[in-house]
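User: For a benchmark we're assembling, each entry needs the component sequences followed by a predicted structure for the full assembly. Here are entry 17's components. Please fill in the structure.
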Amino acid sequence: MVHFLTIHQLLEQLRAGELSSREATQACLDRVEKVDGRLNAFISVDATDALAQADAADQSRAAGEDLPMLGVPVAIKDVLAVKDQPLNCASKILGEFNSPYDATVIQKLRAAGAVVFGRLNMDEFAMGSSNENSAFGPARNPWNTDCIPGGSSGGSAVAVAADECIASLGSDTGGSIRQPAALCGCVGLKPTYGRVSRYGLVAFASSLDQVGPFTKDVRDAATLLQVIAGADEQDSTNVPEPVPDYSAALSGDVKGLRIGLPREYQVEGLDPEVKAATDAAVKQLEALGAEVKEISLPHTEYAIATYYIIATAEASANLARFEGVRYGARLDGADPEEMNRKTRGAGFGEEVKRRIILGTYVLSSGYYDAYYLRAQKVRTLIRQDFLKAFEEVDLIASPTTPTPAFKIGEKTGDPLQMYLSDIYTISCNLAGLCGISVPCGFSKAGLPIGLQLLGKPFGEPDLLRAAHAYEQATDWHTHRPNLD
Amino acid sequence: MEMDLSRAVKLARIELTPEEEQRLAPQLGEVLQYVEKLNGLDVSGVEPTAHATPLSNVMREDEPRESLSQEDALRNAPKTANGLFVVPKIVE
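Assistant: Structure for entry 17:
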C-alpha cells in the first residue's frame, strides 16, 4: 500500500529506514501496471531509469544524506523536458523527439533527490479541458472511467488521484492544473506567474503558462512548490522575489483571514451540487475564523473571450516552430512552404489546428486592433478588478469548475461549450495570480468537487494556509477511488 | 457566422482536408461571434497588458557560456547534413 502515501508520509518512513525508495518506486510502477490500462494517465514509463534513480537515492540516504524529497517518485506531464526521455506534448508532430536537456523544474527536483519518472497524458500542447485532445487517447477519470479527468493536465491529476505516483507536475495556462485536480479529487496548485521557471516547458501561451504541483494533500503542495519555485536566469519572466518557507504557512490558523466571494460567479450553468459543496466549504472556513464577504469582479463575463483571443494568438506564434525542420516528423514537399503545410496538417490534432488558425486570424493585419489589442486592454480591466478586490480581501473563493466531470465525448463537437467550462479558472492566469483547488465533496454520482482559492500575486502562503486549515477540518482529501 | 478561413489557414501554414475545413469554419465562426462581446466595452484610454509581471527588459551580461552542443541541437531533426538542417530547395 506504499503507493497510497503522501510525500510527507513517505519521507517519514524513508527517514526512519522502514522503507526504501526502491520499494516505493516499485510500488508506483506496480500500480501503473495494475490500473493504467483502464486510466491511460501515462503515455510511457521508463521503469529501468526510475529504479536506477531510486537505488541512487537509497545509496545517498545510506551515506547519511537527506534532501527535501530524497527518494520520492514524482511523475511528469509530457510537456516538460526530461533529459534523454521522450517529449511529445501528446502530439504526433514531435515524432520520436528525445529531450537533450532537463527543464529547470526537473533539475530542481533532481537536486532535491526526487525520482523523476513517466510521461503523463495531456491535451495536445496543453490545449483542452478534458484530455480528449491527446494523440495517445483520452485519459480517464478514476472515479468513473466513462468520464473525462479534466485537462489539459489530465494525466497528472489521474496519476495522483489513482495513486500511480506520490505527486506529479503539470502546467496551467487557463486552469489546466486546478480543473483536473478538482475533477479527479486531488490538490492542484497554480503558482503566481513568474514564480516557477518555464525553461524546458514547451510554450503554449507565454504570458499565461505556469508549472505547478499535483499532490494528495496541501502539505505536499507546499513541499513540492518549495522545491520548484525560485528565480532562474534561463527564464526572463521569472520574478526575483525571495521564496518564503511555505511550510511555515501551514499553521492551521485562518483567524482574521479575509475571503471574498465574487457576486458575478453565481453563473447560469453552475451545478447545484457543486454550489452546495463549495458553499459548505466557505462556511467551514468561516467557522474556523475567516471573515467572508461579498466582492465584485465586474469584468468577469469578458474573461473567456479575452482568454481565447490572447491564448490562441500566443499559441499561433509559439507553435510556428513545429515546421518539420528542427525536430519531429516531416512530410516532404516540393518547397519549404509545402513541406511546412503538409507536416503541420498531418502532425497537429484538430483542436490545435483550430486554435492556431484562430490565433493567426486575430493577429493578422486588419484584425489585430479589433481582436488582439482590444483583448489586451480588457485584460488590463480584468487584472484591475482583482487588484482592487485584493485591497479588501486576502483570498477569493469559488468552485473550481461549474460542474463535476462530464462524460467522454459529451462536448467534443462543440468547442465553444468546452471553452465556457473554464469560467472560474482562466481569470487567474490573465491577472497573474496564484490559485489552488482542494477537494471539498462529491456529487451524488460519486464524482469529486473542488474548491478554488485565488491569492494575490506571490500570495501562495495565504493560499496554502487557508487550504491547509480547511483540509485539516475535513476528510475529503483522504477519499480514494475504488480501482480493485 | 461563417468565417473566411482561407487567409488565416495560408498564414498558419496548415494543410486542411476539405472535411476539416467544413467542420472548422462554423466552429471558429461561432467562437469569433462569441468574442465579439468585447466590443461592448469601452476601452478608450486603457493600457494593454502584455504580461502580468512588473518586469521589463531583463538583461544578462553578454558573455559566452555553455550551451547545447551542435550534436544535441541537431539530434531531433528529421534531416541533417554536415552539422546543418536540411530543407527542400528554396532558391532555384
